[in-house]
Amino acid sequence: MKIDDKKLRELEKKVLAYRFREKNLEDRKIYDEVFDHETLMTIYGLTTKGYFDTLDFPIATGKEGNVFRATTIDGDYVAVKIYRMSNSTFNNIQKYITGDMRFRSVGKNKRRTIHLWAQKEFRNLERMHTNGIIVPKPITCVKNIIVMEFIGIDETPAPHLRSVEIESPDELYNTLYDNYKKIYKKAGLVHADFSEYNILMTESGPTIIDVGQAVLTNHPMAREFLERDIKNLARYFKRFDIQVEVEDLMKDILEEEK
Ligand SMILES: Nc1ncnc2c1ncn2[C@@H]1O[C@H](COP(=O)(O)OP(=O)(O)O)[C@@H](O)[C@H]1O
Ligand SMILES: [Mg+2]
Questions:
Q1: What are phi and psi of 205, to 5 degrees?
Q2: CB–CB of 115/145 below 8 Å?
Q3: Which residues have CB under 8 Å from 154's CB, separation 6+?
Q4: What is the C-alpha to C-alpha distance for residues 65 and 58, in angstroms, rounded to an integer?
């Protein structure tokens, strides 16, 4: 790749600016870890290919990485999820990788594992999106970075289900259960981190996010993850007096199509 020194320097300056915006020392440390040299080069590559032009601000800082809002040259928004290339990311994802046929050959290589992890999230997202499930539209994935549709209300990232008031809980329940069932039946996956923290709400309804840890339905832990997801759904809707029988839903999902 031919590197435009000026552009790369600009990028480094912007990243530095984020770093100093973070007053908290811990957060600052996280930033240093997120923007290692290779990641900066990947961001640079994505900007030269036109996937986005600027990283605007961090939407969230998580255990394994950060999600940013970014703007394209046409002024459209995208979401950019960057996995941190650290031991802690590697350690956190191990339990989901063991037993997944798609990761058979990875072994103990930290870099490759994290890259593959981002690939896995992207592929899970594609599988769900092509099967009509309400997830952000996947755009591209390079190394430890995923670019996808920005879910927001104009400028602002969409709030989590946990922090909004619900007007029609029955309708929301039906939409979420319908989509959850499709994830299993059509995409052949178990989400494995399904909760009000991983559902974003816009005027047009809910969007399910954070599909990195989703496993194939034949994964040895699939059944356990499925039950946990359904229990979360039941727990959330209990407050609206919507009775969700975990066992009935499990049966409904696991039942073979006739
Ligand atoms: N496509 C998106 N559009 C807008 N915000 C997003 C998008 N994807 C993630 N986010 C925000 O970033 C947060 C972290 O992303 P998520 O994929 O849940 O990663 P994790 O929880 O593993 O850190 C989300 O809770 C949400 O607030
Ligand atoms: Mg999340």
A1: 115, -170
A2: no
A3: none
A4: 11
**Residue 5 is a catalytic residue:** no
- Give the bridge partners for 207, in sequence order: 200
Is residue 7 pLDDT above 90, yes or no? no
What tens digit of pLDDT does each residue of 57-92 get?
A: 889 988 899 999 999 999 999 999 999 999 889 888
10-24, 99-113, 214-228: least confident range: 10-24
Tell me, yes or no, whether 231 and 119 share the same domain.
no
Is 229 one of the catalytic residues?
A: no
Owner of token pair 């390079």: 142
- How far does residue 29's CA lie from ligand 1's centre (Å)? 20
Number of domains into which the chain is organized = 2
List phi, psi (to 5°) of 4. Answer: -85, 105
* SS3 (DSSP) at 179: helix
Report the half-sphere exposure of 218 (CA within 13 A, side-chain side).
3
Rounded to two decimals, the pTM is 0.92
Q: Rounded CA gap, 80 and 115, in Å?
A: 15
The structure tokens listed for 123 are 């592929």
Closest listed residue to residue 128, CA positions, set 142, 149, 112, 143: 149
Same domain, 188 and 199: yes
Do 27 and 139 fall into the same domain? yes
Instruction: Provide the token pair at 195.
Output: 């909760």
Q: Do 17 and 121 lie in a common domain?
A: yes
Pocket-forming residues, ligand 1, beta carbon under 6 Å: 59-60, 62, 64, 67, 79, 81, 136, 148-152, 157-158, 198, 209-210
41-65 pLDDT, tens digit per residue, is 999 999 999 999 989 888 998 889 9
Question: For position 63, which CATH number holds?
Answer: 3.30.200.20
